[in-house]
Amino acid sequence: MPEPMRVHQFDVILLDEYKAGVSEELHKTGVTQIEFIGDDDIDAHGIKRDRPLKRATDISKNLVRINRIIGALKQFDIEKPTFLEEMLGVGHIKPEKVSEKNCRQLLNDSEKLLEEIESKVLGAESELDELKTKQAGIEEIIENCGLCPEKLKAEYLGDGSYIYITTGVFSDTIDGEKINGIRDGLSKAFGKNHFIIETVIEQKKNEGRKNIVVGVLREGKAELNEILNKFSVRVLMIEGEGKVSDIYKNSNKKLEEIRVKMEELVKKLEETYKKHYKGLLIAKELLEIEKERAEVFVSAGRTSRTSMLRFWVPENESLRIRELIKERSENHCEITQRVVDPENAPVILKNPDAFKPFEFLISMYGLPKYGHLDPTIFVIPVLIFFIGMMVADAVTGVLLVGLGFFLRNKYGRYSDGIKNLFTFVILCGAMTICVGVVTGDYFGNFLHHYVFHLEEGQALPGQFMFPENAHHPFGVYFFLQFTIILGLCHLILGTLLGGYNELRHKKTKDAVTHYFSWSLFGVGLGALFFSDFEAFPIGGAFHFPPILGETGVYVAAALVILGLILALLKTKFMIAIEMLDFFAFTLSYARIMALLVAAGAVATAFNQLAAMSWGGVMSIFAILIFIVTQAIGMILAILDGFVQSLRLVYVEHFSRYYEGGGKEFKPFKAKRKYTQV
Q: Does the pLDDT value for residue 92 go beyond 80?
């Protein structure tokens, strides 16, 4: 029976001078997972927490500098992924082939690149920031000038020898409610020792915007500002000398000069982007790989001259890794294999090559615990079969296969995950074609009724099932019975797998009372479906043929009772709920039949709807109805098929034996996106 790959855990003690070489080799092999040594273990061994290699400081410095330049140039990376590419998480990135270089060489290469472009890019960025600040200031001046009387002179504004003059803008009603309030406030505060000049800037139906120029004695400055603030007057700041109209013109000239200068700087940055951006991404990736190698020892412990590194390694790689460490440390090392703790051991799925691409479907639910059963080979064929049964239309199957091949070829080279996903879609499409052929579903009854003009009961080539017919031997009742028995077998398989898993872990009692008990119950229940047992007439309710004799009925009932008695030893008073749960899960598989029949019925109804509009000019409308409705039906059928199939596996089947909860094996290896060796 399949289970996750066995792993070993090693503690390796190295002399400091060999740390870098061993770290590099482990990283290149990519088959180990570094384990963080906890503080309790550190204290127990009488050692201290280790530090990164000295080179980590230089690497980090260069990475900070490179990231800053990338941040400045990223604005020119305007190629956006399509909706599908964004959803799939892929991009058009062609990795660059690079030669193997040591850390010092990579640091030197990055230094040369930084010397060439860093000052140019950061200088241009700094100048751009200054120009943007100036631009914002000038734009504010231009805006303020546009809100002031043109003949107003800027040098009059502010503090004078004896008086203070300011200008502002505000919104007011057509009857001048605010301006009257301001005038009254000024009169009360300053009497005749003030002046106010009002200018209408913009007038609408019920309100408008007005500018005022107000002057008071210098000592009344604070009180004036309080009055203006009370009536929501926005005080305008005008820098410069001369008339506002002249300042407005000069400011526009300065703004245009700034814009031209900014365009020149942006153009220079864009040229640098085109020439060096890909190189920066490559340099960043290579340095990040070196940084990971240099920082791995923060998970380790140390003495004055040695380090202790702990890691996991697959059993089949164990000997090779031992020899590699001995070779790189010139045998100046001590390697200890620790007893594996199943609760902490990481999980590496180990399946035949044919099933490996589909392990992601198990990971979506949760990896099996270490040492427990891996259900991949039991799940994948059943899942493909369920999806084919539920989608059940040959034309939809052809489209799934075609779409799967197209997307697999287009995006598969960017990601193994995408490649595996669309391989699964292709297989589901192929199964859908098979089911569609044997049931005669090609957009419902389109081929049967509108192309070949066959009568009810006549078969298309390859067809021998009629899911819409209640009287045919392979009609709707056959599918109902088939899916219920299929579901029962699926649940029984789960109980058998669970029992086997418990036996492997020396838990015989749990295997018998929690798993095999329900296997017996399921077999007995399945037999009773084919009986006319009056005390439990379930078979007749679903039109099962009563082929089981009297002796068979007693044997089936005995299996049911024996299973319940054994289960009672485990579940106690929950036995009734467990029994109803098992029975309900069995009937839940009837959704396969329901979706199979519904898909054909809905497509047939859409055909009839289009046929009602056929004839003359309305034929165009009929074609449109056919295309739109069948496309909607196809999308719904695919979504329902995939979702409901996953539900039957993840909920009904896995509830019998599978928990998940395994810890993913995270290899210590280079993560490459822009480079390949």
A: no
